Every structure is written in C-alpha cells, then in structure tokens.
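Practice problem: RNA polymerase sigma factor
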Amino acid sequence: MDVEVKKEKETYLKDHEVKELIKRSQDGDQSARDTIVQKNMRLVWSVVQRFLNRGYDPDDLFQIGSIGLLKSVDKFDLSYDVKFSTYAVPMIIGEIQRFIRDDGTVKVSRSLKELSNKIRKAKDELSKQYGRTPTVGEISEHLDIPPEDIVLAQEAARTPSSIHETVYENDGDPITLLDQIDDGNEGKWFDKIALQEAIRELDERERLIVYLRYYKDQTQSEVATRLGISQVQVSRLEKKILLQMKEQMDI
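Answer key — structure tokens:
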C-alpha cells in the first residue's frame, strides 16, 4: 500500500473545495464521499506511519484510519473556521488508538509510557508556573520534544472523541483539544505533515535542493556547484519548487 500511495500523483484540493465535498457528502452524495477519501489517502498514511512496528499490518491500520477519516467527514462542522485536515488528524489517530486498545494484543510501549510520565510531570510544573494548564506547544518547548509526539503520547492514555471536546475549564470557559494543540503557529504540527507530503512529491534533485538550501543553509552558488549547474538555474528551480509546494499545501 505504501508504494501505491507514494507513486500516485494527486491533485490537491483547495480548502473551499474540500468543504464543498464535505457538504455534499453529508447530504448523501456518495461520489463526493469517495473523492474525499481518495484525496486524503496520504493524510491517513502519514498518521499510520506513526503506529508501525507494533505488530499490525499497515494495510489494516490504513483501513482503520480511513474509518476515522470518514467519521471526521460526517462530524465536521462547516461553521468552524478550521481546515478539515486539522480536524481529521486527531480523529484518525483516535480511531487507530481505539483499535489498538480494544484489540489488547499490543501494549503501549515502554518509551511511550516514559514519555507520558514526563509530560504529566511537565504539565504539573508548568501549571504551577503559569497558573493555568500549559498548551502542547509550551510542553513541547519545555521538554524539547516535537508537539506531535506529545499529542500521540497523550492519546495513548486517553482519546477524545472530537477535537472540539472540552478537556479543561478555566473559570467556566471551556478549553478544547484544538485550543491545546494550537501553539500560536496555526497548528504547526499539522502543517508539518503537509510539508512532508509536499516534499515527497518532489523528484530526487528537487528534494536535494530543498535539503541543501533549507536544512543545510547553503547558498544558491554552493548548491549550483554541488549539482554542476549555474546559480541562475538553481534560482529558477527553487522558485518552481516553492510554488509547487505552496499549491500542494494550499497556502
């Protein structure tokens, strides 16, 4: 399945196109529902990869994740000003986590338990420091751990049924999972998934250019020397790559 998903070139839908398909699906349009699943296969697979090496067949996890995707389509409230992927990812995670918990054959790994304990202690410390429950972003910075790893560790112990479920109340004001995930960077860890998918769409030379320019901080001239082309060619390729990635990430 991994190979099939990666080989297939997909056209990315704009946010308003996704929401129109969701509306049609919620009104009973099966073709719209099928299109949403097809266009979000990579999103499901990105989540599935985090649950590999636990003794389950990837195809089985993909099918379970797809159920979570469909549930997110059915439950998505079009009145919310939030991207569908931001809503869908926790639903997909939750569905897979429930499957693993209910199956009972695979326990939460020791490392995940240890991380969960670290997070709990960090939350206690930061709660005393800030006088409120810390966000995932604040815990991430405190522990120097990626936000998505923190969310997954917390999901291992408890899976909210919805990203809009109240997880804490502050003087009567409900705080949802979406509020907790938000670190002030518009759901940075969800965007990270989209970025990874956009990079996978690039060919080998394009990925190398992105790696050298943005991960190794090399100049266009240095990249040109490495690739055996001119600096002007690197500049043109870089502009083309960035435009392609922006279109795929809908930004």
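Discussion: Confidence is low (pLDDT under 50) at residues 1-9, 159-164, 167-171, 177-187. Students who identified this feature from the tokens alone can consider the problem solved.
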